[in-house]
Amino acid sequence: MSVVVDKPRGPALARRAWTGFIRRREASVLVVAIALVVYFQASTPLFLTTDNLRNIAQATAPTAIVAVGIVFLLVSGEIDISVGMVAALAPYLMHYAIDFYGVPAVPAIVLALLIAAGIGLVNGLITTRLKVPSFVTTLGMFYLLYGILLTTSRAYPVAVPASAKGDVQTWLGAGDWASLSWCLLLVVFFHLVLTRTRWGLHTISVGGNILGATEAGIRVNRVKVGNFMLVSTLGAFAGLMEAFRINSIDPNIGGGTRITFTAIAAAVIGGTALAGGSGTVIGALLGMFVLAVLQNGFNLVGVSANPFFLIQGLAILVSMIANQYLSRLRRAGGS
Amino acid sequence: MADALRVEGVAKRFGALTALQDVNLHVGRGEVLGLLGDNGAGKSTLIKVICGFHRPDAGRILVDGIEVVLRSVDHARSLGIDTVYQDLALVNELSVYHNMFLNREHRIGPLLNNRLMRRLAEEHLREMGVDIPDVTVEAAKLSGGQRQAIAVARSVYSAARILLLDEPLAAMGAKEATIILDLVADLKARGDVAIVIIAHNYAQALQVCDRVAILQQGRITFDRPTAETSVAELTDLMVADYRGRRRAAPG
Prior knowledge:
The structure holds two protein chains of two kinds.
Chain A: H1 10-23, H2 27-43, H3 50-75, H4 83-101, H5 105-129, H6 134-153, E1 158-159, H7 167-174, H8 178-196, H9 198-208, H10 210-215, H11 220-246, E2 248-249, H12 258-269, H13 281-301, H14 308-333
Chain B: E1 5-14, E2 17-27, E3 32-36, H1 43-50, E4 58-63, E5 66-68, H2 73-78, E6 81-84, H3 96-100, E7 107-108, E8 111-112, H4 114-127, H5 144-157, E9 162-165, H6 174-190, E10 194-198, H7 202-208, E11 211-216, E12 219-225, H8 231-248
Parallel strand pairs in B: 3-10, 3-11, 6-9, 9-10
Antiparallel strand pairs in B: 1-2, 1-4, 4-5, 7-8, 11-12
Helix pairs in contact in B: 5-6
């Protein structure tokens, strides 16, 4: 006698696909991103042109790179609001090293990244060892770095040093698709780190259940400090990339808190929980894409830039509500 | 054969407060000891001394007949002493199999070997009789009993030889408690793990334990095989202790 195993038929297959889709944390933001692209393309044929896509990519990439680091830190249960200032400081560090100390371009860039990692280390140690909430630690660090930046630069922009021009500048931001390429490379890499490595698993554990993680023998402070260093380094890289792209080192790169808050908004819209324990790098990229498409689309259809922040605020609120709702659906229907 | 765990004359003070004084207890392999006592009696302090979290002020601890000075929780764990805390051990956001292998992950190079961990988790849970239909679901979706069972299974998998269960049945319904009691019974039958259970429910404790000890005001006041006692006797002892303390209290 043969045993017949029922294969899922049409409706069952569709239901399973739907369940699988809503289980993905990026589901809601992906739907919003597609809807926005369809809407703006229907409104103006300029939207899906190569030039405009390049504009979106260049506007998205640096903040998306910061958002990658922010995701790791939020997932581990902490936050960094000084990263935008690290982004502004890093190009100056490179400039000081090259123009005042004669350091070659590539070592100067590496030095800037290392100093940024050191800033993250200080943030992490103050937060974990001295038990200062990370919001307060990094608020203090924000103003400290702002003071250092304005004092040392006298608030004047400078040109990119001559030795950092040419191939270095093209590869690190000035090339048409350099920003996007770096961004996608880093997103894929850190998506794998968060979902497929021990570091990612421990980051989720520390943010999800710090007591349980400690009892399992995970060095929770080391994980948190590591993630502070990661977000600062990525912030510095994003700042350098932006300086190379605009061919100028400006104390207003990132607009003070703008790059930080936009990166946090992108992470939250992409499904990262502020309370820690969950979040996705791909979701943050999609969140950043949604914000960039909104701003770009408004410009193209002739809407004033002023209501953009209103829309951004609404987007954060709606996405948080949608994430809460989808989380409940996931828990109810997933097991 | 030496006891798996022997505690001799252990005392622990926190400033003016004496939490434990001259505590003696022992448990052998394949034996389950129930540790009973009111809130504040010193049960959790005793567990924390045995698992290496607190250093005792006096007394000694012997594992397999050899005196050990436990420097930390990790050190105790390396000697096979593991503690399962009440419903706190699992990370809700991780799958069952990731929780099973948390901090002991199998890897291929830098990447997690999820396939191997899934298979091993399924096999181990099946061997232990823990019924989890899908090890890929997040721990948040499990019942309290299933979560506790996985925490116990994880400790056993990590070669725990002395298992301390801190109120594993608290806040559980009868059905969920049965999962844990069955698991403890299975472990007892294997004969290679010594188990200490802190319990509040005397009936459940008597159901699964070989011996029960009562801790009152930091001292072991009762230590007897379960066959030689009853729920009524244990209740009388606890009530008598409570009334004695009320009478002794000033005013």
